[in-house]
Amino acid sequence: MLAHLRLYQLISPSLPIGAFTYSQGLEWAVEAGWVKDQASLQQWLEGVLYLSVARLELPVLIRLRHAMDNEDVTSILHWSRYLYASRETSELRAEERQRGKALGVLLPSLGIEITPDIQPAIDITQLAGMALASHHWRIPIEDLCTGYLWSWLENSVMAGVKLVPLGQTSGQRVLLDLSEQLPELVELSLSITDEHVAGSTPALAIASARHETQYTRLFRS
Question: Please, are residues 178 and 153 in contact by the beta-carbon 8 Å criterion?
Answer without folding.
Answer: yes
